[in-house]
Specification:
Layout: H1 2-13, H2 26-34, H3 43-57, H4 64-85, H5 128-136, H6 142-146, E1 152-155, E2 170-184, E3 191-200, E4 203-212, H7 219-228, E5 234-244, E6 247-258, E7 273-276, H8 285-295, H9 308-313, H10 319-327, H11 332-363, H12 377-385, H13 392-405, E8 412-417, H14 423-436, E9 440-445, H15 448-465, E10 469-472, H16 478-489, E11 495-499, E12 512-518, H17 525-533, E13 539-544, H18 550-557, E14 561-565, E15 575-580, H19 585-597, E16 601-605, H20 620-631, E17 637-640, H21 646-658, E18 663-666, E19 679-684, H22 692-699, E20 709-714, H23 720-731, H24 735-752, H25 771-787, H26 795-815
Parallel strand pairs: 8-13, 8-14, 9-11, 9-12, 10-11, 12-13, 15-20, 16-18, 16-19, 17-18, 19-20
Antiparallel strand pairs: 1-7, 2-3, 2-5, 3-4, 5-6
Helix pairs in contact: 1-2, 1-4, 2-3, 3-4, 10-11, 11-18, 11-25, 12-14, 13-14, 18-25
This protein binds adenosine-5'-diphosphate and magnesium ion.
């Protein structure tokens, strides 16, 4: 409702112009939001909202005065509705005084000789058994334990009144004992029960505790319990609230009698946020908390790597305090502040590390690829032989690239452009720039299929430009390969196309100026080092159709330069995407028939090659047989999958591209880059098994020509999440939105794929939740790097960075 009210406010402020947002316009947003109304509205209120909704449907056509009054009415009704939904009168939560935690409680650090690098086994109270259990969690040194952050918190600090108790949450109440009764269970002589009837100003509740064991059922013990909780006493009760037929009740609560309503609680748990750690067999929660409590006081003497001024300007908590608070927060606010500080540090170190790496790279010059006077000929000529003009976005990105190329610092630029946005020609024009400046170029693709497709495209144009090019893949015959490598070394070959494996090969260039890497987010440190090892520091351009969400991009590259091709070539029609059940597969086949009759072509995509009974996947081979023999005996159906040889793959794609086959059954081999403009239908089997970004890529294989295109997602799983995921795809074709969703739903590791992940270890920070802190940390990292590139004035940070690097290397060594 708040979003709606905000939208109404903004619309009024802007003069009732039916504001256009990124996704929808104001009026359709309102209509949409009104559908999200609360379930249990009285009929009258519901009718009012429906009337409103009808009004807004026509909003776009209404004269100004009517718009004004409609917006006013909407605001009034929403306000009234909100009032009606508010609880009558909220009583403020009880207050509880806490004795401040461990440090102040007089627990001095148990030995002055402990420091961050002390083995945990030397901490007092940690025996060999506990030490070995801790080691199972990877916790060897004091430092490790301090950085072993809680997974979660039990929120006993959630102070509420009795009528505010919500099942499923943890809460604390402060109430008065009305009746106190301790008795042996009538049915089980080994069980005794303490029952307290408690009241506060909002209601009453019965709190029950069970004590199992003979010694608890003696009359003396029972009486002592009753005396412990006398009628009229004030008690604090903490615990998990569960639902019972008689209303909310505490399950096995913690209880303490307060000396007076204002007296502080003595318990170390009641009223607090209790950390919850990942545990291991044989190491209980209480034990781990004890050990943490024993070492935490140490951090108060640890230096803060952030300069005071910076800390103040960024409003960050001190590091020692943050470490203390994260393990024993004195309240929600302090917890959030400590988390923000620690997340900031993680991101800052990450960004500083990336910035330093970049700086080191830029210290090694790359060949400036400025054009000779009177140049421009080659690229100009290329643009004139293209059958189309570049889009505005293509022109802009090309200009950005060429400006980079003219500098002596090596370019590291990522071009993001949705599927079909025309990245290839931009790459080509860039390569031609390098070639015209007298250098060689390399174009690398992730698969042989794609490399060959690129090469075929080039072969249409390059001979006219008198540029020499060659294709080098795993299946290039040896004699040809030898010749080619020779031409490369002596500089006769100007452009080499191949798979990413180009770098692995003993390929030597004469004067490599530019490397373009297609369909990859990331040109890893390893690959770059490999080039450097060959004495090369070329300019680098990576291109991807799978946009990486900004947080991911920043964490991987720091400030990599990013260019966006944010415009599709003219005449493209949106792809109509729908989700259907397997039983409606026939609809897809009818669509295929219709389209083929119109002269178009179709893909049928499957997740796996061979029949796997266990997973009940319809395999490509089986589906190919069925389609070619039973479904489309009159059509030519091709088959493409990863087990085919390179030549066979090429033949399959060639036949499909030329129209010899009209239907291509394929695995995800077609995922990236394959470009057959006549394809206008794609049926994706077991769509739920693919990632969103991958489906978006797949779908990008259709809709590349002028014809209307269709994508059918077949989903047989009843999984709600799977449905929701696929619905994102049905709803939008915005690659960025899809990438964000993918990140949220599957996490960064999955999104990037292990192959190119190289993700940093983040203990606390989340790439989906902490985007804002990441941006702040990046800004600070930039300022610091600009002012003090060697971190001479920032010894603390330099130290932390070195420390982190050492740890990472340790870890890598351990893994090996
Ligand atoms: P992607 O960005 O997915 O790699 P491609 O470079 O394969 O896209 O281009 C998709 C299709 O659009 C190709 O057939 C290409 O020839 C065509 N194309 C590229 N740029 C333009 C343009 N400016 N106008 C019209 N068609 C274009
Ligand atoms: Mg491409």
């Amino acid at each position: 409702m708040r979003a709606l009210q905000q939208a109404l406010q903004v619309e009024a402020d802007r003069g009732f112009i039916d504001l256009k947002g990124r996704q929808t316009c104001f009026s359709s947003f309102v209509v949409q939001q009104l559908q999200l109304r609360p379930q249990d509205l009285p009929a009258e209120a519901l009718q009012r909202l429906l009337d409103l909704s009808a009004g807004f449907q026509a909003y776009g056509e209404l004269p100004l005065a009517r718009r004004q009054s409609l917006v006013r009415t909407a605001r009034e009704r929403l306000h009234a509705l909100r009032q009606a939904q508010q609880p009558v009168l909220a009583v403020a939560p009880p207050r509880l005084r806490l004795v401040s935690n461990s440090t102040a409680a007089g627990k001095a650090p148990n030995s002055a000789s402990l420091n961050a690098d002390t083995p945990l086994s030397e901490v007092r109270g940690v025996g060999p058994k506990t030490a070995s259990r801790l080691a199972q969690l990877g916790l060897l040194l004091v430092r490790d334990l301090v950085h072993y952050y809680p997974r979660d918190y039990l929120d006993y600090a959630n102070l509420v009144r009795i009528n505010g108790l919500k099942p499923g949450t943890t809460a604390t109440i402060v109430a008065t004992v009305r009746r106190s009764h301790a008795f042996a269970s009538p049915r089980n002589p080994n069980l005794s029960i303490l029952e307290l009837h408690l009241i506060d100003c909002t209601g009453r509740i019965k709190v029950t505790r069970f004590f199992a064991g003979q010694r608890f059922s003696s009359p003396g013990w029972l009486q002592s319990q009753q005396r412990l909780f006398p009628v009229g006493a004030t008690v604090a009760v903490s615990g998990l609230v569960k639902e019972t037929p008689y209303g909310p009740a505490f399950q096995d609560p913690l209880m303490e009698v307060l000396e007076s309503p204002q007296a502080p609680v003595r318990s170390e748990t009641i009223g607090r946020l209790l950390p919850v750690y990942g545990l291991t067999e044989g190491l209980g929660a209480d034990r781990l908390r004890q050990v943490v409590e024993a070492v935490i006081p140490l951090v108060s003497s640890w230096p803060d790597p952030l300069p005071e001024a910076l800390r103040r300007s960024q409003k960050l908590m001190g590091r020692s305090e943050a470490l203390t608070q994260i393990h024993g927060p004195s309240g929600q606010e302090q917890l959030q502040a400590s988390r923000r500080r620690l997340v900031f540090d993680e991101f800052l170190l990450l960004q500083l590390g990336l910035a330093q790496r970049r700086r080191q790279l830029s210290l090694r010059p790359a060949p400036p690829l400025a054009l000779p006077p009177g140049g421009e000929g080659l690229v100009q000529k290329f643009l004139t032989i293209l059958p189309f003009g570049l889009t505005g976005a293509q022109q802009r990105v090309l200009a950005e690239i060429r400006a980079d190329l003219a500098r002596p610092q090596p370019m590291a630029r990522l071009v993001q452009g949705d599927v079909g946005s025309g990245k290839t020609v931009v790459a080509l024009a860039s390569l031609l720039t390098a070639i015209e400046a007298g250098c060689q170029g390399a174009l690398m693709a992730p698969t042989e299929v794609l490399a060959e497709q690129h090469y075929r495209k080039l072969a249409e144009w390059l001979p006219q430009l008198h540029v020499t090019s060659a294709l080098l893949t795993g299946s290039t015959p040896a004699p040809r390969r030898r010749q080619l490598l020779q031409d490369l070394v002596n500089g006769q070959l100007q452009l080499l196309v191949g798979t990413h494996a180009l770098l692995e090969d003993p390929v030597q260039f004469d004067r490599l100026g530019l490397v373009v890497v297609d369909e990859q987010h990331r040109f890893g440190v390893r690959q770059r080092n490999r080039l450097l090892a060959k004495g090369l520091q070329p300019h680098l351009l990576t291109m991807t159709a799978t946009p990486i969400p900004r947080t991911l991009a920043l964490s991987l590259h720091g400030d990599l330069d990013v260019s966006q091709i944010d415009e599709l070539p003219p005449g493209r029609q949106p792809i109509r995407t729908s989700m259907v059940k397997g039983s409606q597969r026939q609809r897809g086949y009818e669509l295929i028939r219709e389209q083929v009759a119109l002269g178009q072509r179709a893909y049928v995509v499957l997740p796996l090659v061979e029949e796997s009974e266990k997973l009940e996947l319809r395999s490509a081979v089986e589906v190919h047989r069925q389609l070619s023999e039973e479904e489309f005996p009159d059509l030519a159906v091709g088959l493409l999958h990863g087990r085919l040889s390179s030549a066979e793959k090429q033949a399959a794609i060639g036949a499909f591209a030329s129209g010899q086959t009209q239907v291509l059954v394929s695995t995800t081999v077609v995922e990236v880059g394959v470009d057959v403009p006549e394809a206008s239908v794609m049926v994706i089997e077991h769509a739920e098994r693919f990632g969103l970004a991958q489906l978006h890529q797949l779908r990008g294989r259709v809709g590349r020509g002028a014809a209307a295109s269709y994508c059918l997602l077949i989903n047989d799983s009843s999984n709600v999440l799977a449905r929701q995921r696929l619905e994102v795809l049905v709803r939008t074709s915005d690659g960025f939105e899809i990438a964000e969703m993918d990140l949220r739903l599957r996490g960064p590791g999955q999104v990037l794929g292990t192959r190119q992940s190289g993700l940093p270890d983040l203990a606390l920070a989340s790439l989906t939740e902490d985007g804002t802190v990441l941006e702040e940390a990046r800004d600070v990292a930039r300022q610091i790097t600009a002012a003090d590139p060697e971190l001479r004035q920032h010894q603390g940070l330099a130290h932390a960075l070195a420390e982190q690097r050492r740890r990472q290397m340790d870890q890598a060594a351990r893994l090996n």
